[in-house]
Amino acid sequence: MNTQLISYLDEYLQMQTPQFAVMITGKWGCGKTYFIKNIKDQWCSSNKNVSENSIDLKPIYVSLNGLSSINSIIRKVKTILYPILYSKGATVAKTVILSALRIASKSFLDLDKDGAGEDMNNLLDAEGIIEVFKSDSDTLEGNRVMILDDVERCKIPLDELFGFINSIVEHSNSKVILICDEEKLDQVANKEGLATEYKNFKEKLVGQTFALKVNYADIAGQFIDKLSNSIINNNRDLIIDLFIASKRENLRLIRHCLIDIKRFFEQLPENIKENHNYDQFVKNIVAYVVMASIETRFGNNGIDYYQSYTISDEAKKVSLELEQRYNPILERYHIYGSSYTIPFKFLIEYIRNGFLTSPEYLISECRMLKSRNLTNWEKLWNSYHLSNAEFSELLSKEKKRFYNKELQYVFEVVHLSGILLSLEKRQLAKLNRKHIVKVAKKTIEHINTAFFVMNYLKNQLLLLTHPQD
Asked: Same domain, yes or no, for 64 and 176?
């Protein structure tokens, strides 16, 4: 998706004296760092073998996140440059290097390898780095590239930061690639009262800006491959489809999500794998852990209300948004309601706390793992396994139970009404959607009323049999 950007960067590296920087922008978490580090690795691996009379410079990557001074940037660059200066040809570069150094320290760099090291406190300062990056140094080979990431998260005043970057671009003849979310960078400039200055400075400093395009499905697939986990890999398409449906365009979320899935199953008792319905259980749990992880980590507290039955009107609105987002995927993969596996609230609690409360108890209460015959509506949910005759017979029976309000449990009402709505949507049955919703609401009200009446009668009976003094 970014062939033009990659091609341009390759051309940029071949320029002798570009005297401008390139900016790559995109939203936080969209994969900018992942992209540029992959490109950097390719550049490093494609470098030619240098002679023993040269120092091999490789692209330098520095995250500016949280850095509060130019010196802090210099220190990071020094850390990366230090081992490079010990390459085979470091001795012949002594004259060039020492002219760029500020000598005053307890550090010793024995460039001559004669045991008498030069005293180096600050191995390189800002001017020294520029000197090392000069293209006219015969002893320096490789790509003179500095990649500065997280520019908008840097705590250095923008005018000071861009002044430093400009000095590298103009005076060292090296290439500078800036990685940022430019919308956030504009906000920083406005906050510092430098909106106009930033615009002018960018016009002078940045020769080309690219907005990174992201194939989230492809990168999520790469993350899955690298993790090498059988449960995750077996449910690859389900995970990716739910992530895309979430519209949370942040690759950090999918990374965390995959780890959450892996850790979840590590906390379950080993003997669960022997259960005849284990694979179906795994698929259902994976789906709901993905949803709980993505929405909770994104900060959407509305996930607390998903698949909850007694909620306020506002919570119902939030829950409806989540249903519209995820339910088509759950239907496509034939995912049961969470009440049949592990109730959703426990999965959310797991994401927030980092551990699963009482996994043995939750597994023992899991309806999906208990040995039992499937109900008619469960068979109907898996209608792709049924013959036409079986499907018609089961549909007729379950419609009768539903419309006659014969269901006794709220979860049954929710599941069966969802199945009927799904069948209507897929044009497998001619049904009235509004009537289904109306009957479901009335039935739930009736069940809840009966529940409260029963509890009231029990309390009254206790009072009669055990009168208070």
From this structure: yes
Q: Residue 180 and residue 151: Cα distance in Å, rounded?
A: 5
Structure tokens belonging to residue 37: 């580090």
376 or 185, greater pLDDT: 185
- Two structure tokens written together for 150: 């997280």
Count: domains in the chain: 3
Same domain, yes or no: 223 and 309:
yes
Q: What is the CATH number of the domain that holds 164?
A: 3.40.50
Whose tokens are 């410079």? That residue is 57
Q: Given 327, 344, 372, which residue is the final one in a domain?
A: 372
Parallel/antiparallel/unpaired status of strands 102-109 and 206-211? unpaired
Output 11 or 100, whichever has higher pLDDT: 11
Contact 369, 274 (CB under 8 A): no
Residue 149 dihedral angles phi and psi, to the nearest 5°: -100, 160
Concatenated DSSP letters for 371-413? --PPPHHHHHHTGGGS-HHHHHHHHHHHHHHHHTT----HHHH
Domain that holds residue 339: 215-372
Instruction: State the average pLDDT over residues 427-439.
Output: 90
Q: Residue 320: inside a domain, yes or no?
A: yes
Query: Does residue 122 lie in a domain region?
Result: no
C-alpha torsion angle, residues 41, 46, 52, 55 (rounded to 10): -50
Q: Read off the pLDDT of each residue in 79-107 and give the average, rounded to a whole number.
A: 49
Report the C-alpha dihedral over residues 282, 285, 289, 291, rounded to 10 degrees: 120
CB atoms within 10 A of CB 346: 17
Query: Residue 348 is which amino acid?
Result: I
Which backbone phi and psi does 444 adopt, to 5 degrees? -65, -40
pLDDT of residue 114: 47
Closest CA to 151 of 73, 214, 41: 73
Measured distance between the N- and C-terminal CA atoms of the chain, rounded to whole angstroms: 79
Q: How far apart are CA 173 and CA 95, in angstroms?
A: 20
Beta strands in 65-134, from DSSP E residues, in sequence order: 102-109, 118-122
Phi, psi of 55 (to 5 degrees): -105, 130
Beta strand segments in 402-466, E: none
Nearest C-alpha neighbor of 157 from the set 23, 77, 67, 61: 67
pLDDT tens for 205-264 read 999 999 998 889 999 999 999 999 999 999 999 999 999 999 998 899 999 999 999 999
Q: Which two tokens stand for residue 219?
A: 């990168």
Contact present, 359 and 269 (Cβ < 8 Å) = yes
Over the stretch 314-372, which tens digit does the pLDDT of each residue have? 777 888 889 899 999 998 998 988 888 998 899 999 999 989 989 998 998 898 898 76
Which residues does residue 63 pair with via DSSP β-bridges, in sequence order?
149
